[in-house]
């Protein structure tokens, strides 16, 4: 027998066995599935005490951040991005550095941020642009 035909027969036999096992598994799952009329919710006794999470212990909850805290967090995030993208010798950010680190916000607004028109940004230029564009401050 041709080796190619023998190989194909083995492959198709494996595929038939796999299909049969899948069909058997699907039939078993359907046999054990609850009827459609059964309730989708667990019994009430299981839900007692689980509807709401327990309250935080006193002194452990964190209040939502205020505007000053959010601006501080934004500044730290921008600084991390800037450090990754800047040139270590000049400590300035070029378009290539922003492109290399996939910093799309700076790439989109690079021209507007570059107040000195020298093709490089300092962190002060980036941050002052961001601060100027925070709404309702």
List keywords for this structure.
137 residues; 2 domains; 2 strands; flat; mainly alpha; 58% helix; 3% strand; two-stranded antiparallel ribbon
Element-by-element helix/strand order: HHHEHHEH
Number of helices: 6
Which regions are unreliable across 5 or more consecutive residues at pLDDT < 50?
none
Major beta-sheet overview: 2 strands, antiparallel
What is Rg?
A: 31 Å
Dominant shape: flat
Helix share, percent: 55-70%
The counted number of beta strands is 2
The share of residues in extended strands comes to under 5%
What is the average per-residue confidence, as pLDDT, rounded to a whole number? 82
How many angstroms separate the termini? 82 Å
**Major β-sheet strand ordering:** 1-2
* Tally of distinct domains: 2
Counting helices, strands and paired strands, the structural category is mainly alpha
How would you concisely characterize the structure shown here?
This protein has 137 residues and is mainly α.
List the SSEs and their pairings.
Layout: H1 3-32, H2 44-47, H3 67-85, E1 93-94, H4 95-100, H5 104-113, E2 120-121, H6 123-132
Antiparallel strand pairs: 1-2
């Amino acid at each position: 027998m041709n080796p190619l035909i023998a190989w194909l027969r083995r492959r198709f036999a494996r595929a038939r066995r796999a299909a049969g096992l899948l069909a058997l598994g699907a039939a078993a799952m359907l046999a054990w599935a609850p009827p459609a009329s059964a309730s989708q919710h667990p019994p009430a006794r299981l839900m007692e005490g689980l509807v709401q999470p327990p309250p935080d212990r006193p002194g452990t909850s964190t209040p939502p951040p205020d505007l000053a805290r959010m601006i501080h967090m934004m500044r730290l995030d921008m600084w991390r991005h800037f450090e990754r993208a800047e040139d270590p010798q000049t400590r300035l950010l070029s378009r290539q550095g922003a492109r290399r680190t996939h910093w799309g916000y700076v790439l989109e607004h690079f021209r507007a941020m570059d107040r000195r028109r020298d093709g490089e940004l300092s962190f002060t230029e980036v941050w002052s642009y961001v601060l100027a564009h925070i709404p309702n401050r």
